[in-house]
């Protein structure tokens, strides 16, 4: 054993963040995901029988993906080889595969290669790894916060089982925080900090299901309390909800402007608008804007919605949406938030009709089939005598002249305005 390396590793663990130090050492310490690793559940059965397939853990940050992969390797006595999809290239993959082959050949020990943020792997990396997953040289465990259906190529995905991890419940996070607060070895027990009733629940609520965020917040709060209150000498410092509220002013928003949560929130906004639920629409708008999304993006979605889902049922909806878009460009955040809120409330209350949207869908289909259909002669432009002699524009009745002769001003003159193949076609 490299004694210097061992000592450095111990020091690294001592100085590492609380979330890393307090990582579960066995399944008894692991919190959450009971539907996956509870007794008799699918993943737990595979682990207990040492029949671990290549798999992908898909779930929000801080739900135990890395910890679970480590526990699987420890329980099944595999080599655990962590790597980052961001910093590792094909050369790193080949080295890892070579070492896995050597381990299997000389000691009979298989290797679990854990790829964090596997959604960031490019096609070359995925293709290079595929043969070794297929022949069993390595067991791949990938972790991703993004939908693997979109981010992992189909060949690799078909050779791995996908397990969905859920956000941790408040109770799960509170249990983890309590353990971290009282653990003298890996946790914060040595600081002698007390905690007010409801304070840990407050941290758990702010963390919104993310254990890493909760543990980092707890460590920051404890160290701050110790710095302000000192050590030893009677009653130690106490974490209160009010002090935590001051330190954790900004909520922890789970949002990725290019990821799944981005599309989930926009979808929730649009479906709330379509369902005429103004309260829900305003809530989702707030979630989107307060998470840092560009207001221009939201404004564009509202303009599109005004025509797609309201259309001729209330033509003023498009006016309102465009006015909000203009306000966004003139004011920016945070001043434009109320302008977007006004447009959102208006669109939610407006009557709904997708007639124009459906009509244009039919138009696109017809255009694809009749793109070269000639324009009828009477509709053609005739700027020259030659074109007039060839019949361009001949027989065209000028609608305003017809409208003048009718009480309602309409100019329904019976002329055919569609190409020959589409005569009589109705879109609206």
The number of distinct helices, counting runs of at least 4 residues, comes to: 21
| Measured distance between first and last alpha carbons | 79 Å
Binned, the helix content reads 40-55%
Widest β-sheet, arrangement of strands: 2-3-4-1-5
Task: Please summarize what this structure is.
The chain is of the alpha/beta class.
Q: Explain this structure to me?
A:
The chain is of the alpha/beta class. It has four domains: 132 residues, Rossmann fold (3-Layer(aba) Sandwich); 78 residues, Helicase, Ruva Protein, domain 3 (Orthogonal Bundle); 90 residues, Zinc Finger, Delta Prime, domain 3, CATH 1.20.272; 51 residues, no CATH class. 52% of the residues lie in helices and 7% in strands. The protein has 21 helices and seven strands. It has a five-stranded parallel beta sheet, with helices on both faces. A two-stranded parallel ribbon has the order 6-7. Helix 7 links the parallel strand 3 and strand 4. Helix 14 runs antiparallel to helix 15. The protein is flat.
What layout of secondary structure does this protein have?
Blueprint: H1 3-15, H2 18-21, H3 34-37, H4 42-48, E1 55-58, H5 65-75, E2 79-84, H6 90-107, E3 111-116, H7 123-134, E4 138-144, H8 148-151, H9 154-157, E5 161-164, H10 170-182, E6 194-195, H11 199-207, H12 211-229, E7 238-239, H13 241-247, H14 260-274, H15 278-290, H16 295-310, H17 316-331, H18 337-349, H19 355-369, H20 385-389, H21 399-404
Parallel strand pairs: 1-4, 1-5, 2-3, 3-4, 6-7
